[in-house]
Amino acid sequence: MGKNILITGAAGYIGGSVLADFISRTSGPIKAARLSAAVRSDEQVQSLSKLGVNVIQVDLGDETAVKEVVISNKIDIVVHTATAIDGHAVSALIKALGQRRQLSGEETYYIHSSIASVFAEENGWPYGEIRDSDPIYEKEKELGDAHIIRKVNILVTELAREQGVTSMIIPVPQVYGRGTGEWRKLSVSIPASIRASIKHKVVYQFDTDGHPPSVHISDLVVFYALLTENILQKKPIPRGEKGYYFAIGHRTHWWEFMQRLAECLHARGLVRKPRAETWPSDEVAADYLGFPRLYVRAMGTSSGDLVPVNAYQLGWQPEWDEKRFIESVDDEVQAVLELDTVKSTLFDTVLSKE
Ligand SMILES: NC(=O)c1ccc[n+]([C@@H]2O[C@H](COP(=O)([O-])OP(=O)(O)OC[C@H]3O[C@@H](n4cnc5c(N)ncnc54)[C@H](OP(=O)(O)O)[C@@H]3O)[C@@H](O)[C@H]2O)c1
Hints:
Layout: E1 4-8, H1 13-24, E2 34-39, H2 42-49, E3 54-57, H3 63-72, E4 77-80, H4 87-104, E5 109-115, E6 130-131, H5 136-143, H6 148-163, E7 166-172, E8 174-176, H7 189-200, E9 204-205, E10 213-216, H8 217-232, E11 250-251, H9 254-267, E12 277-278, H10 282-289, H11 293-301, E13 306-307, H12 310-313, H13 322-327, H14 329-339, H15 348-352
Parallel strand pairs: 1-2, 1-4, 2-3, 4-5, 5-7, 6-13, 8-10, 9-12
Antiparallel strand pairs: 10-11
Helix pairs in contact: 1-8, 3-4, 4-6, 7-14
The structure holds NADP nicotinamide-adenine-dinucleotide phosphate (NAP).
């Protein structure tokens, strides 16, 4: 019998694109699975209901509601893309999968979407180069709970172990490209830069360059599918404390990207100069981009020396490299002009405390 997969954040950029990819599969183990999509609002339910999957409206912070969803839909695998920082949601999902495992006697799985930039020096990572096959959990433990993303990563591994749930963590790098979901189709960083540049008629960059790991959304969803297929086929892949997967396609050199963006926007008559200028201050950058002041500099300048091993060992072959990305910057602009209809809520909690 096919397994039951729940994708959280299914109205979001990554979750919506993962769902679209899973639905489009015409053969293979995902095709045989029953898909459920967790969303938050009435409008999202309506929007996704035409897809022919089981759409569930649930606030993931509500432990009782999450348990009901997982048990009544007999969920075996959760692909969590809703939030990397909300420990309540993570805890509710893992505990519910623990109960489902007890009831079914079958293994249950939790795939967590985290944030790769937590392994950059600007975010307090002191160890330099890190491979996803290194003992990352031990290193995160050594650093304690200072960073919310690390705190949630540790929670995932430890709570899953305690509940008998098999866990995997995907520290997601900077993602770009058009999403293929039904609701939010744009990512975070690059659309924010494009929006701010058009609004203020100038492309700004930080005074320090950054080279963050990056991935095109189409390559990222293929990785989620590959990982899910390996789980469905019960392959002995890294899991638990060893279950980190850096889904990194290439690096992005921010200054090169900003220069190209300035040229593209200038050619469209949307900015005054075909060159990027330096942000007047981090505060202005935070205000214009809509990012929390605490993180804006790290978001714009951090690199991190992340080496993907586990992801590639599964046979993942990303199709996008940096050259292709830089050549596609004008389409990033076009995507914002066409698809910027749903505001991101990713930073709402942090911004409300500033
Ligand atoms: N995009 C990137 O470049 C990137 C890079 C690294 C890591 N990530 C991480 O990957 C995850 C997904 O990113 P994304 O770009 O797809 O974000 P997104 O477009 O904002 O999608 C997240 C979705 O999860 C939903 N959600 C959040 N909290 C929820 C809750 N408590 N209950 C139910 N639903 C909830 C949101 O609902 P609403 O629609 O109602 O807001 C939204 O639809 C995030 O954790 C993000 O930090 C993203």
